[in-house]
Design goal:
Elements (H helix, E strand, L loop, with lengths): L5 E3 L10 E3 L9 E8 L5 H19 L4 E9 L10 H11 L5 E4 L2 H4 L3 H13 L3 E4 L4 E2 L5 H32 L11 E3 L5 E3 L1 H15 L4 H10 L13 H8 L8 E3 L2 E3 L7 E3 L8 E3 L9 H13 L24 E4 L10 E4 L18 E3 H13 L3 H8 L4 H14 L14 H7 E6 L5 E6 L4 E5 L13 E4 L2 E4 L2 E2 L3 H17 L1 E3 L11 E3 L19
Parallel strand pairs: 3-4, 3-5, 5-6
Antiparallel strand pairs: 1-2, 6-7, 8-9, 10-13, 11-12, 14-15, 15-16, 17-18, 18-19, 20-21, 21-22, 23-24
InterPro entries: DNA_bind_recomb_sf (IPR038109), DNA_bind_recombinase_dom (IPR011109), Resolv_N (IPR006119), Resolvase-like_N_sf (IPR036162), SSR_resolvase (IPR050639)
Protein name: Resolvase domain
GO molecular function: DNA binding; DNA strand exchange activity
Length: about 550
């Protein structure tokens, strides 16, 4: 008889004491009673547990004549967060609306595994006049001592959840370390009953199309438009495509037959928030040639470099000339930038200086000159069109890399150029990789020099539309007028201001080299006033307004 409370009735005959067990359930009349049931997975045994809970609560409510069923609310999600628990949220909403007087729950663990959420919810319900009875734990929130016991039980449930989460993580990481990846639905692949990953050819055809279009210079929005116009079905069965979906596909190593495990991880067991594993806080595992590939490795590598060249989060985009353009004065790689405000809508290229420093302090040792990208586009296409076709044909009949480059140039000249030209008339990066060894200028920037990878060097004069567009133009002021190369110009004050701003801007650009661990060596180029760089040095001077 230990652990129970017994009382004597007050109307029994003298000398007779009748004992009965005091029910832990609240003695109420005509109360609207709801039940909450939850399981954390969709496994068959858990479904059976959910059914058992519902039947038990139905019977309990039916045995009380003064109770009426207000509903049974169920969830099949994890209990550490309310975010994905539709049944629980509906239960709270109905309680707020005054539709419930009592809530029955199997245990505190079924209600929530987060101490804060448990206490917050039960206190809110108590303020609404709604009591919660936890059957297994024999806790009724209408009783004065319930919160102490509830706090203890909720803390135990939260710690059990944390222990279970850590055990599951340990098991998953052990499988990863053993080379057993987790299957995730991937467009272009299917998983057989034997566990093999096989190619779904209809989808794989579209994957190859996406990679080829991006490699040849098409942007993500234009690829989306092409797919939707052709009615290509997505992985979810619809016809609506999104740029971020394509961006994820283009970076997915599964398309070359590899698997990288733990690209992200769960930050904690309470929020279940997934975070990118950029800093390798948990170990990553990489399996090469795990399954058949859809994309060849060369194409995948080119696409990754293009994605980095076009990535605005790296400070500025360096597509398509980074790695090809060389400074005519010092021979270092040139970088791309854009002047702020109304000074210029064009992208310019200037000397990036010598690499090897967190911030390239010796970059400004070179002459602060720049050339508009539009002139580079125009001159490059002129040199490409002026290539001697007979010479290319002769080289293509030989062997080696030179012959391959010549064959690609011949093929490119003979096909529709729309697949090789971007919306700003820039050549595709794929064309440059296949045909160009380097691009530079004479020191006066009057002539563009293209060294082709099939052993030919082309020279073309650059046709500047304005005298001050040429990087080496000399600005002077004499006789009350501004002059460019000793020739008077109109709007001289505006030109002088523009050239001054350009020089100051070039001097102040921040260039942060990538780490040795980066697969693709492309620097981060930050505007002078950007706060995104990682340098602890003093901020550069501000530009004049």
């Amino acid at each position: 008889m230990e652990g129970h409370t017994y009382q004597a009735t007050g109307n029994t005959p003298v000398g007779v004491r009748r004992l009965y067990r005091e029910s832990a359930l609240p003695q109420v009349r005509a109360k609207r009673v709801a039940a909450y049931c939850r399981v954390s997975t969709e496994l068959e045994q858990q479904q059976s547990s959910l059914t058992t809970q519902m039947e038990a609560f139905n019977d309990m409510i039916a045995r009380h004549a003064d109770w009426e069923l207000a509903g049974i609310y169920t969830d099949e999600e994890t209990g550490t967060s309310r975010r994905n628990r539709d049944g629980f949220n509906s239960l709270m909403a109905d309680a707020e609306a005054g539709k419930i007087d009592i809530i029955l729950v199997k245990s505190v663990q079924r209600f929530a595994r987060n101490t804060v959420d448990t206490l917050t919810a039960t206190r809110r319900l108590k303020a609404l006049g709604v009591s919660v009875f936890f059957e297994r734990d024999n806790i009724n929130t209408s009783q004065a001592t319930s919160e102490l016991y509830l706090t203890l039980m909720a803390a135990v449930a939260q710690e059990e959840s944390h222990s279970l989460s850590e055990n599951m993580k340990w098991g998953i990481r052990k499988r990863f370390a053993a080379g057993i990846p987790k299957w995730a639905a991937t467009y272009g692949y299917r998983k057989t009953e034997e566990g093999d990953w096989v190619i779904e050819e209809n989808e794989a055809k579209q994957v190859r199309r996406i990679f080829d279009m991006y490699k040849n210079g098409s942007g993500l929005p234009s690829i989306v438009t092409a797919l939707e116009q052709d009615g290509v079905i997505t992985q979810m069965g619809g016809t609506k495509w999104y740029p971020h979906t394509l961006a994820t596909m283009l970076k997915n190593e599964k398309y070359i037959g590899d698997v990288r495990m733990q690209k992200d991880y769960t930050a904690d067991h309470l929020s279940h928030r997934r975070v990118k594993n950029r800093d390798l806080l948990v170990p990553q595992y990489y399996i090469r040639d795990h399954h058949p590939s859809i994309i060849d490795r060369e194409t995948f590598a080119v696409v990754q470099r293009i994605a980095l060249l076009c990535d605005p989060h790296r400070g500025s985009t360096q597509y398509p000339y980074y790695g090809f353009l060389r400074c005519p004065h010092c021979g270092q790689l040139m970088i791309r930038f854009q002047l702020p405000g109304h000074f210029s809508k064009e992208k310019d290229w200037t000397c990036g200086g010598a690499a090897g420093h967190e911030k390239r302090g010796d970059r400004t040792s070179c002459i602060p000159q720049s050339i508009s990208e539009g002139y580079i586009h125009e001159a490059f296409w002129q040199t490409f069109d002026d290539l001697d076709e007979d010479g290319l044909l002769a080289i293509s009949h030989s062997s080696g890399d030179m012959a391959e480059g010549a064959r690609f140039a011949l093929e490119a000249r003979g096909c529709d150029r729309s697949g090789l030209v971007g919306k700003r008339n820039e050549p595709s990066y794929h064309l440059l990789v296949k045909t160009v060894k380097g691009i530079s200028f004479t020191e006066d920037y009057r002539t563009l020099l293209v060294t082709w990878n099939f052993g030919v060097v082309s020279r073309i004069d650059i046709g500047y539309q304005r005298p001050w567009h040429r990087p080496t133009s000399v600005l002077t002021y004499s006789g009350g007028r501004f002059r460019i190369d000793c020739k008077p110009i109109v709007s001289g004050k505006q030109v002088a201001t523009s050239l001054k701003v350009r020089i100051l801007y070039i001097d102040a650009i921040r260039i942060v080299d990538p780490s040795d661990d980066d697969e693709v060596q492309i620097p981060n180029v930050y505007p002078p006033l950007s706060k995104k760089h990682n340098s602890n040095e003093e901020d550069p001077c501000e530009l004049p307004g």
